[in-house]
Amino acid sequence: MRLIDYANPTRFLGLSAALLPWLAAVTAITFAVGLYMVFFVAPADYQQGETVKIMYIHVPFAWLSMFCYMTMAASAFGTLVWRHPLADVSAKCAAPIGAAFTFLALATGSLWGKPMWGTWWVWDARLTSVLVLFIMYLGLIALQETIEDPARAAKASAILTLVGVVNIPIIKFSVDWWNTLHQPSSVFRMGGSTIATSMLVPLLVMAVAFTLLFLVFHLMAMRNEILRRRIRAMRMIEAAGAE
Amino acid sequence: MSALSSLFVREMKLATRVGGGALMGALFFLIVVTVVPFGVGPDLNLLARIGPAILWIGALLATLLSLDRLFQADRDDGGLDLILMGETPLELVVLVKCLAHWTATGLPLVIASPVLAIFMNMEPVAIGATTLTLAVGTPALTFVGAIGAALTVSLRRGGLLLAILVLPLTVPVMIFGVSAATAAVQEPVPFATPFSILAALGLFSMVLGPIAGAAALRFAGD
To answer: Could you give the CA distance from residue A37 to residue B201 in angstroms, rounded to a whole number?
Structure first.
């Protein structure tokens, strides 16, 4: 089976309908395991106390904010190069989910930052580049919502997504540079590299759980979008016939 | 080649004659810079410190404001369809249109900036540095903006959307432009480092902008 064989929306609907209950069940189990480990197995940090538990949702959100964009970029490539009919459905459906994860990464980071650094927001390089990513998500959604014809909206947003992929590393680099120029000693310190195994395992389980959740949401949104387009097509045929 | 040069001449004529609005951007630039002291107060030391940033933000906004006409006028009168059907590579057409657009709207901003810098009480070195960074940086803004202009060309009221799409992409240009301008007067950082990165960004967007813009125009024509 090649990738193009899944291009048929009806086949996709059948396959995803068969797959979704199992995927949802696996997601629920992973979440149950992950949350149990976070609350009962993982130790509290000796400095941060129980607030360190925010990390177990904050880091997966941040990771998914990038993962969603990469999914969209791959879909955009599929739209422009292979004209895969499901690729633009995938790109369109990933955007709101990605924006939501990015927002949650910013919000949980802010909630974590208040007790740790004493402020809701700092213009740290990492935070700033995530904020720019969030704005780019909103711009993409706005572009998709503004162009009426789905095919043209898909191509326009695919181009913008790919331009974004090229630009995101540049933005990241320049924001890093900007930050070190303006505030050499930042309040923000991630002890990420020296994380203990007792904390790393629950974190990875939670990351897998949220990735599975993204897949479930994404498949569900894609199914809805396909059905929405069918309704649109049927209405247009009906309107054309009524004349 | 003559097709491209005549396109450049045509764009310049359209921009400088009645209804072209080439100098409107420079006027807007003047107003933005005038409004800032009302917001932050007339403290000359403060203005001198934030002067380069104000000039850069003003130039960015003025560039954004003029961008929506880049392809829209051609689409309205049908010229865009002729360009799409023509034999000249669309990427080169977009490049030439951007260059003409920058000459008509970006260059006046660069020329106006030393005068406006005096309002900001900036030192001569800072004035020179800011003007130089604007001269290198504003073409990058135009090229990046051309992507947004091409994406929103078919929309009735694409101006605001264009700004939303383009502004995140201009963050690097903004950062290195202001950094280079401030580095010229402040000690620790050398001027050449951010300035060469700014120039690199300009060259990079000169490649990316026309390619992505041409792709967007092709799909808008479908």
So the answer is: 46
Which tens digits make up the pLDDT trace of A122-176? 777 778 888 999 999 999 999 888 888 888 888 889 999 999 988 888 888 888 7
Closest A-chain CA to B208: A163
Rounded CA separation A115/A54 (Å) = 11
Residues in B touching A163 (Cβ below 8 Å): 147, 169, 208, 212
Whose structure tokens read 């280079």? B180
**DSSP per-residue codes, B75-93:** HHTTHHHHHHHSSS-HHHH
* Residue type, position A6, single letter: Y
What CA–CA distance (Å, rounded) separates A178 from A105? 22
Residue (of A170, A229, A150, A208) closest to A32 by Cα position:
A208
Between chains, do A181 and B179 touch, taking CB under 8 Å as contact? yes
pTM over 0.90: no
Angle formed by the axes of helices B159-166 and A125-146, nearest 10°:
150
Tell me the shortest Cα–Cα distance from A187 to chain B, in angstroms: 21
CA–CA distance, A155 with A91 (Å, rounded to integer): 10
Closest chain A CA to residue B186:
A181
Do the beta carbons of residue B72 and residue B153 sit within 8 Å? yes
* Predicted-complex ipTM score: 0.85
Handedness of CA B134, B136, B139, B145 (dihedral sign): negative
Relative orientation angle of helices A87-117 and A197-242, to the nearest 10 degrees: 140
| Helix intervals (H) in A78-192 | 87-117, 125-146, 150-182
Could you identify the residue written with the tokens 């949220």? A210
- Alpha-carbon distance of B120 to A13, in angstroms, equals 62
